[in-house]
Amino acid sequence: MSTIKRLQRLTGEDSPKHKKSPRGDEISELRRRIEAITSRRPMAMQKPASRPYKSRIPLHNVIRGEEIVSAFGKLFIVHGHNAGSSNHGNRSIREMSSLDMKAAAILANNADIASFGCKDALFLDTETTGLAGGTGTFAFLIGLGWFEDDTFRTQQLFARDFSEERACLNFLLEMAREKSFLVTYNGKAFDVGLLSTRFILNRLPDGLTAMPNLDLLHPARRLFGHRLENNRLSTMEKDIIGFHRYGDIPGSEIPQRYFDWLRYRDPRLLEDVFEHNRLDVISMAALSVHLAEILSPKPDLATREHLDLLAASRLLVDRGDSSGARTILEALIKADNAHAAFEARKSLSLIHKRHGRWKDAIQIWEAMLLCNPGNFFAVEEMAKYLEHRRRDFKKAIDIINEALSLPHSRTTLERDALVYRLRRLKSRAGCLNDE
């Protein structure tokens, strides 16, 4: 294809009706079209009208905060508070200020937290220039929250450029010295580790790593992972505490907003970022009290998801609180949710078995077999007990034979497991050749 044809396509003037010119005319036409394209290029490369330019709007006119000057430099701080009578989703701030510290210690798997009070907690969330971590990632906005009486206060430390990082980090250290433990969401894997790196690079002491950390991500995943599509904080907000964000900026866009701020200094770029960070901090407070309530020794079956309570009992067992788990399971057995009640019986019987309360465990297994003689779990557990504790091989064989003779929707693996156990029992009983 000739250059003229290519230019005709670029300029949108390609037409089958176009008449060819002599050689001189072609050269003139070529020059004219090149000039036309050149003159159009600045227009094509012009930035969209909505893209920010260097702004003369002061930051504090858009983001209501103040500049702080310290021996470590300058930073910008935004203060906020939520009164006890206000709500965040289905939780009131006053409710959030009565966090059960024993439950919080179980959630964190750190017994030290039980000795603290709710006002000793520092809620922490960062907005960064990337998610990869490492020395190239910078926390330009540090969101903090804490309880003061029945009010939840927030403070956001903003580095307007990289030169203000040291002042932000030092201010964070001063705040952390006044508190006893952290509350984060994925903070152990990201926020605290990132800040630790920044402390080192700025030749400051690391005041966060040694603090007990209630990282809400891990217990939230344990308690709600069975019914949520993912474990993001925004999903926990919507599905667990009933808080819905409208017009929220996606977290993936936040790094670019900061880079645009550095280039254009337009504070309107940051409005959504500050609000996103503030809501993250408040949501962590609401989620922490909700998680703690699920571990309550007196669960409210009318207001709690039964499968959440079942997951809570398993978490308690893993944390060494079998007594708390038994309380929840005994309540679930009486629930009108057949699946939850069945799973609660299984879990409770295994707790009894683990602690040598054979009479209580057997009572549950026998009740399950009375309702369904082919129940795989109850058949297997009873056979194990009869074989290893009572050495009553004949009765164990009878139970398995009865289960195998019944039409039952068990899996191939379950049937194979029963057949294998039956053969071993017969071998031990000396009757394998009597088949």
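^ that was protein a. below is b, sequence first then the tokens
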Amino acid sequence: MVVYKIEMKKFLFGITVLFFILTCWRCREESFYTEPGAVLGFSTDTVSFDTVFTTIGSATLGFKVYNRHSKPVKISSVYLGGGESSFYRMNFDGEPVREISNVEIPPKDSLFVFIEVTIDPFGVNNPLIVKDSVIFITNGTYQDIKLIAYGQDVHLIRGKIIETETWIADKPYLIYNSMAVDTGHTLTIEPGVQVFLHDQSSLVVWGRIIINGTKEAPVMFQGDRLEEDYRIIAGQWGTVYIDPISTGNIINYAVIRNSIAGIQIGYYASDLRPTLELKNTLIQNISFAGIYAFDAEINCYNTIVVNGGDYLIALLKGGKYRFSHCTFANYGVSPYGGQIAGNRTNPAIVLTNFIRYAEYDETKGKYVEVEKTGEMEEASFYNTIIHGTLENELILVENKENLFNYYFDHCLIKENPDSIEIHDTSHFKSIVLNKDPEFVNDTDRFELDFRLDTLSPAKDSGSAVIISVYPILEFDYDGTSRLLDSAPDLGAFERKED
């Protein structure tokens, strides 16, 4: 009898516990918002990717899912409409999935959904639209977020050393993990080619590079992040590096933007002198320096170098340079792509005939400062604009032992009058000092235009002598003759009055 009572108590206790569990479960089930018309809220109705290069994953974009009800909501199912064949990948509240069920969102709460896309190469140059959707089913109600991306097939060059070849504008070139042109070989790039470089990647030239862009079809160098926010973010890729052993390089009508350095030519520890003819080129929005040269030889004209984090033109350890009808203007680079320029402390132009750097001394077991010197055979600037936000945009530093020849002829220069001897005719001639060049637009970083406005003091302030010596300088970046009025304008652009 005692045993019976004990067993009965156990049975009744078990029934009570089961009843309690079922009751709680039922209460929990009934606590969800179960109306058929229940809808979720979303931070957007479409996730749109800019051009995505084939085989290379996109950036990660996301959206938020909101439960705006006063009770929890259970989402029966969330899935990619394209299923296993979708180009998209979904990370749902931290979990990578293609489909997930029974997702709960507490009342007045939200969760994140992140989307990535990788597009297989189709062998088609024109961008392809790749669509899909993220589908949500809640209490029988279907809702969806549209996904759209534009896929672009590319020539992918991944950490490769190439020999002589020609790039044509059939489809873009994507440089991943840098590349190099081998010694004794030539890379020729034809008009209209677009070159995209991944983070930290550079184009290294040991042999030679010939860029044959045109005004109508320049050769473009830029980072591979094509979202709108990245249009004006500097430092997205490395540089076009021309090694000291490289000679005979020609760059015509190139656009180099958003890199760490636009062009680095030469190397501080080398005694060789690389050569470059640089013409009709735009170097813009550079996190460090536009042209970074060590004992190089450069003939440059009709070229615009604007907005750098440090220098625009750094000519170090000597060399031989001639800049004619160039526009150099430094208003800094924008942090994180914002419209307001960041602080800068270094001048737009710096010339030296030496370089100091740290080198490891094995005998001392530590790094020591080393100085290498060079001869500044020539650093000539003709009919050129040098301007920016600092009081001094030109610095000349010599060691008093090596050659240090420089000359500024008919130039507009932003500089403290006490810092340069503009009356020294062996170095300066006809200088327009501390006048705003009055560019068409030097403030809107999405629509910059460094042509001259109608009231610019650079108008008709140049000399035609340099054009008589070098007739190729008659025509500006836009192809306009500089000899149609009283005198040439300073800079890369000749003002055309309506």
